[in-house]
Amino acid sequence: MTSRYSRDAGPNFNNGIKNVALVGTTGQLGKVFVEHILKTGKHNLTAITRAGSNTNVPEGAKVAAVDYNDESSLVAALTGQDFLVITLALTAPPDTHSKLVRAAAKAGVPYIMPNAYGIDFYGKPTLLEDIPALQSILSNVKEVEEVGAQWIGLTPSFWFEYSLGVGPFTYGFDFPNKSVTFFDDGKTKVNTTTWPQRVPDDESDQSVTLAQFVNKPVYISSFRLNQREMLNSVNAFMKKTDDDWKISYQPAGKRSKEGWEELAKGDGRGFLKGMYSRVFQSPSDGVYETHNDLLGLPKEDLAQAVQDAHNWSVSQRASDN
């Protein structure tokens, strides 16, 4: 008979996540996962890397080089892992996610966090209808169930630092040219999350377990903002006013259509332009209730987040030159 409580399960029972495997350790999101997983001191972290790559991972993480065309190498790297976190770039081969999920199931990994970070396509079916790419992302999630494993989805909406600083095709801000495009009137709110937003490193949230979120999304958010509020915060940080910006307005629906047309012509930024402006259409599909309180997530400082986004933007431009 299965023990109902962990205290009755015997000395060899593991009631926590000890071994974590992570794919995409050097990406913008993967680096944050690595930093905070190692910081807890509670987990053994294995970085799954492609054989022959020159991936450098922080001290404290084990490296497992794999051949994605050889399932046995994936299974070997994932055997003994309690949790697999997948963070893949948009440029990754389309079958990579499926190969990881199927190998993890054969290796007996009980929990998988799929590569499905972003907007709430679980609770907003119209987004699935309007953004076809989300159908394939949802298929990635459902495949975890199909192979007999369990998924935990992380839904942060748009990542704040990237979205504010990467260019005008996301939140509409073009820092080098001091211009911003408001979608409609710029007052439609969406949830947005910073990369470091996480559970505090203590034991105060003892009631929270992975079992509460099996095959469900976990909703987190740092702020619920509109573009007007973003610009106010940017102005406060940069000691600027609206007069220092070229401010324009564009209907969100028209902008979204433009994005899809640009994508069809081969401009990958068109996907971001179409998706972001679609979510900003009023009434907003970018607003949801979060699990922040349940997880004990800290309240963040918008001014600090804007500074971090600005610094990230500057460093990205420097690395591109």
Automatic annotation (TrEMBL):
Domain NAD(P)-binding: 24-120
Keywords: NADP, Oxidoreductase
Pfam family, any one: NAD_binding_10
Keyword Nucleotide-binding: no
Cross-referenced InterPro entries: NAD(P)-bd_dom (IPR016040), NAD(P)-bd_dom_sf (IPR036291), NmrA/Isoflavone_reductase-like (IPR051609)
Superkingdom of origin organism: Eukaryota
Keyword tRNA-binding: no
GO molecular function: oxidoreductase activity
Entry's family note: Belongs to the NmrA-type oxidoreductase family. Isoflavone reductase subfamily.
Name of the featured protein: NAD(P)-binding domain-containing protein
